[in-house]
What we know:
The chain is mostly helical. Helix content is 64%, strand content 5%.
Amino acid sequence: xxxxxxxxxxxxxxxxxxxxxxxxxxxxxxxxxxxxxxxxxxxxxxxxxxxxxxxxxxxxxxxxxxxxxxxxxxxxxxxxxxxxxxxxxxxxxxxxxxxxxxxxxxxxxxxxxxxxxxxxxxxxxxxxxxxxxxxxxxxxxxxxxxxxxxxxxxxxxxxxxxxxxxxxxxxxxxxxxxxxxxxxxxxxxxxxxxxxxxxxxxxxxxxxxxxxxxxxxxxxxxxxxxxxxxxxxxxxxxxxxxxxxxxxxxxxxxxxxxxxxxxxxxxxxxxxxxxxxxxxxxxxxxxxxxxxxxxxxxxxxxxxxxxxxxxxxxxxxxxxxxxxxxxxxxxxxxxxxxxxxxxxxxxxxxxxxxxxxxxxxxxxxxxxxxxxxxxxxxxxxxxxxxxxxxxxxxxxxxxxxxxxxxxxxxxxxxxxxxxxxxxxxxxxxxxxxxxxxxxxxxxxxxxxxxxxxxxxxxxxxxxxxxxxxxxxxx
Length: 474
């Protein structure tokens, strides 16, 4: 559904110069600019139909993913390291990797910039001139514009590099390279905030404000964060909630003591060790942030996949070379997991993660063929709004800067009346769950009694059931 937010935003910007999901009823800062601008440029060049634009976005995202994958594979050819290849195989055959590579959201860009940053840092850490600093700055800046929160990796690398400097084991000049990278990440964030302020009058992403509100109501989401880590690693088997964090902690401790990761002298000489420490800090930081996010999504792994890979690969290398038994057993285990991961994906039509969204597509096309005496609003508005033609108003605030204030104060009904939104379309879950109503700002029995059913689009066969078009009888 979020992919269609991007597609609709890009189409509107290409035709009107406004970052709006609903054709101008509201504007939004709830997106990452680089991917949105790329899609908008693509639309201007090709002038596609609705179906063609979706396919073009899928192909573009897949091409970017393949560039990152080719880079990772070429590095593996040079290293010829068993741990590297096993981890690469496990991660790229994961369902999370496959889905995100054709998700038509910013995930491929996030992975590519993160990988470029790690590789370029390692190659030039010991001998960086002005040219290398400029390139690192631009990679970090691009990463922040691609995904606003991607700069944690660059900041962590700068922080770790500071340790041998302040202990007197390294010259201050050595700090300039990672500091330039961190500065690029910060400048990228400021550029995005400035962009949003100019176009919408609000610097912070509307989606971040809304999710912070959801998190304040729902509390920390530890399960979602652990699941995100497991899915990134291609682990599909349900695990006890403590097992994966415990395994990562064990590897951390083994690397600390057996792998001499506590040695400041090693930190001074070893760029890989700096990346390992930065990766550990990065994983921990994102884990804390995502538990407080309010709605953890699969594409958040864009920030995790490279740091998680570096943490595991460098950590395993420092612990020691695998024994003969492990050299044989590990590839067998990885290949079995990879085969199972790939089998989960096919046949695609029977194993879609959100099968109810086909009903949303059909509903959007239905609305496109009809006229209404007022606007239509929806919480899960991406697919419906895209195929309707781009005037459905998003009501959860992810791509609507106006909604947040009303949702926080339980006054969404006022917003609907003020904007002449006379129809709602969404699943029954959005009205039957009091928790969802509360976070959306419409937990109001008087308002709910004004809803009259116009049409139901499915028979309740999915978890998200009974997609319904309502009229608001005021």
